[in-house]
Design a protein that fits this description.
homodimer; alpha+beta; Arc Repressor Mutant, subunit A; Chorismate lyase; 2 domains; about 25% helix; DNA-binding
Chain lengths: ~260, ~260
DNA sequence: TAGTGGTCTAGACCACTTC
DNA sequence: AAGTGGTCTAGACCACTAA
């Protein structure tokens, strides 16, 4: 009848006990967990087994370990709320036309979101990109890959794709990092006469690849959210396709819409 | 200088090799991986180490293991696309008024989404619920918890909260499973004169709790997406607050909106 | 019954952090 | 130097699956 093991596996039991301590607040965020050797002795198991218990808690995202230091209750990340407002015109529209020689914006733009790297290359469009931009598969498109950071820690990647004719000669496809600067990509497109009007976003979540774990400095048990974004003009023509990979624990996405008929 | 280990750890090496086989398509979805004992022998390591390598691949969501049978390359799930259309009026509006005596809808409604269980109870509102519904913290609200299934496998949970005055006496708070039936919750609210008009959704991703892992039959390395939804009438009054937990790999969320000013 | 994954003990060495 | 997490070997037993 019962599908459950009669007695909890030792590693599970240890994890359950620690989780209870955490949930009850007796081990608050930032608190140090007992050393592996203590846990092993207390439960009469080997260090391997105690270590496995910690592994379970890491996978759940409840605990982080610092090699050589200890295991700690994970502290909640400051969460950034991503709503349609982040694309608002007043955030990127520059009043003076073609003012992109002025890099290094001084005020709040850098604080809000400064990117670390910008890699631009001309590549062959894959299926998704081709479909989104309305070009043939294998056609040349510009790829602009960035890693976004906040307070020095990477938060997400953002890779944009453009039709070459749309962006040739613009700061968007200039190798120099950060040169898109003031106003960013949308302003540059606007300067080209390509006015962003509508955005479609597709969101999905998965576990990171090993590369992403390194790049985004993800701790064990942290999923990523993959965002696919298509930006269109008022006439429906797509002018940018972008793929982002976000550390899940640092964001919440927010959307509001009317119920359709 | 180099921060990388000179030689890859054995468990990492095995995982990397297997991942390469999978990525290259030499181990296609559904293919059986070599038995642990074979891997151990081939690499000159113990079964423990080979097992750890499998664990890494499981965490990445690339591999699933079936106890007693073997380890297999994970097959991609059929993905369901969730757009605003799923809330469209024509999907739930019933032409004949107050037709909720007719349970067990016979045609497509059940195929699309049939729920397994419905637990209704009167509980004290927590902070989120109170804020969303505009009631005091601790005030009584109806909680209606469901587990949604598709083709017999659970896909997500959905727990709705209502102001008691809004739903008292309606099928929504009837214990009998499935009785909301035809048209579902929005139709019942409409029958009460509470017409859903606008929806706000907040999405975030995280690793599942152990309970959720059992409930949604999640395999190792599968994250969940938590959806918070507030449904409002045209005058802005909230009539439902709902929280859902989705198996991440089975869904993609899709939103389209105009760029704000 | 044979094959296979899951977990555990016992003991060892290493890598990193902290003092 | 002492403390702590990470990984590994060697060997064992158990639980589940499939023929």
């Amino acid at each position: 009848m019962s599908n459950e093991p009669r007695i909890s596996l030792p590693s599970r039991q240890i994890a359950d006990d620690l989780r209870a301590e955490i949930d009850a607040g007796r081990l608050p965020p930032g608190a140090k967990l007992p050393p592996l050797r203590d846990l092993a002795e207390r439960y009469g198991v080997t260090r391997n087994t105690a270590n496995k218990a910690l592994g379970l808690l890491q996978m759940e995202g409840l605990v982080v370990t610092r090699h050589g230091s200890g295991a700690y209750v994970r502290e909640p990340h400051p969460i950034r709320r991503l709503g349609p407002d982040r694309y608002a015109r007043h955030r990127w529209q520059v009043t003076t036309v073609t003012a992109h020689a002025d890099d290094r914006p001084n005020s709040e733009t850098t604080q809000q979101q400064g990117y670390q790297t910008q890699e631009v290359s001309l590549i062959a469009a894959d299926g998704h990109t081709a479909a989104a931009l309305g070009v043939d598969i294998g056609a040349s498109v510009y790829e602009r890959a960035r890693v976004m950071t906040r307070d020095g820690i990477p938060t997400h990647t953002m890779t944009s794709y453009y039709r070459p004719a749309d962006v040739e000669g613009t700061p968007l496809v200039d190798q120099s990092p950060g040169i898109a600067g003031r106003g960013g990509g949308f302003q540059v497109l606007t300067d080209q006469g390509l006015i962003p009007h509508e955005i479609s976003e597709d969101l999905s979540a998965r576990m990171p690849t090993t590369e992403e774990t390194l790049l985004l400095e993800l701790s064990a048990g942290e999923p990523v959210v993959e965002v696919h974004r298509v930006t269109r003009m008022a006439d429906g023509r797509a002018i940018e396709y972008a793929r982002g990979v976000h550390a899940a624990s640092r964001f919440v996405w927010s959307y509001t819409f009317d119920i359709p008929d």
